[in-house]
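STRUCTURE:
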């Protein structure tokens, strides 16, 4: 199981409690999380199932590389952090 955590600023917009979820890839973990919290899916993923541009995810502190297929591997005991990306100058 991996632990999926959302920052407080996301939780102001959609309820997304920290949960331990099974899966061997980021896609599998997120889809399992969204089975219990469908509202969070639309906030994190677009209608094609890709990571929205304003979102960023880290697996064990490393930013995910595959924003489209979410194929990054997830190990048992991994921490997955979901954040809103910041931009500006």
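SEQUENCE:
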């Amino acid at each position: 199981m991996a632990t999926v955590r959302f920052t407080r600023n996301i939780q102001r917009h959609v309820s997304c409690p920290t949960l331990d979820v099974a899966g061997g890839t980021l896609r599998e973990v997120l889809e399992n999380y969204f089975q219990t919290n469908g509202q969070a899916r639309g906030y994190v993923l677009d209608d094609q199932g890709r990571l929205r541009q304003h979102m960023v995810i880290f697996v064990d502190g490393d930013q995910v590389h595959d924003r489209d297929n979410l194929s990054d591997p997830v190990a048992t005991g991994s921490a997955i952090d979901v954040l809103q990306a910041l931009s500006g100058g």
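REMARK: The longest helix spans residues 26-36.
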